[in-house]
Amino acid sequence: MKKLKNTFELIWTAWCLFSATIIILINLPIITLLILYFGKEDNQFIDYYLRTCTRAILISWGIKMVFIKHPNIDFSKAYIYVCNHRSYLDVLVGIIGIKSYKRFLGKEEVFSWPIIGFLANRLGHIPVKRQSESDREESYQKILNVTKNKTSLFLCPEGAIFMNDRLLNELRNGAFRVAIESKTPIVAISMINAGELFPADKIRIRPGKCINYMSEPFETKNLSLSNVDSLRTQVKKELLKNLTAHYPEGKYPIEFNPNDYKETVYLNTLQKK
Questions:
Q1: What is the chain's pLDDT, residue by residue, as a tens digit (273 residues)?
Q2: Are strands 161-162 and 102-107 parallel, antiparallel or unpaired?
Q3: What are the CA-CA distances from residue 77 to residues 22, 81, 137, 177 (Å)?
Q4: Exposure of 159 by Cβ count < 10 A (0-12 exposed, 13-18 middle, 19+ buried)?
Q5: Pick from 37, 60, 65: which is nearest to 191 by CA?
Q6: What are phi and psi of 198, to 5 degrees?
Q7: How far is 194 from 211, CA to CA, in rounded Å?
Q8: Of 106, 107, 128, 201, which alpha carbon lies 20 to 30 A from 154's?
Q9: Contact call for residues 116 and 97 (beta carbons, < 8 A)
Q10: pTM of the prediction?
């Protein structure tokens, strides 16, 4: 039975990669023209078109995204959206769940990739540099400028995808410092089931439902940098509340060998901040 399941998953993954490639190739010329015309402007039409393409990809994958949004969220306002980091699905969650223009953080090397790097640069997404203190400071200032200009930001404060069974790993301070310094509210997105549908340690895509809770915004306008720890604690509590409701055993349903522990680094966001 397990062998049959693995065979089905391999066939389904091959289909998912094929369908995503076809959808991207069909829409790439239109997306490129839109980006060349509008550049790095916070253009709602480009954002809407990218959301439409992403929905098409997820439909072909058999993945249903469910968003449970707090009524106080107003997509006409800028927020810093933070989420738990269990899967590469989080990028797709950010694209279609946040119905306004937003910027993403990404590893510096991604911005040199063909096509993806071109699109990321033209859309104004932010490469995270970590080689030196000055590089980290440069990345931090770019992020701060984006939020001060009232553009939403999406990031994962865990900084990496850790292949362990903890529901939530330690959150780094960067996102919370930026939120306080720019006076931008934080919205916590709790992703449920993402790691099972698209695990980070292997190329495997499974059909199913991904539930995403979008919290009431955490206000930062009256906070100072001395409140970074308390703000991080509040956000962590919100994420764990939703994760624990779906995983009552208090651990993530992942098979791993602690003696062969490894982590898949995706975003090492503001590690030294």
A1: 778 888 999 999 999 999 999 999 999 999 888 888 876 666 788 889 999 999 999 999 999 999 999 999 999 999 999 999 988 898 899 999 999 989 988 777 777 777 777 777 778 788 776 666 776 777 788 888 888 888 999 998 987 788 788 899 999 888 999 999 999 999 999 999 998 999 887 788 999 999 999 999 999 999 999 999 999 999 999 999 999 999 998 888 876 555 555 544 333 333 334
A2: unpaired
A3: 34, 12, 26, 19
A4: buried
A5: 65
A6: -145, 75
A7: 8
A8: 201
A9: no
A10: 0.88
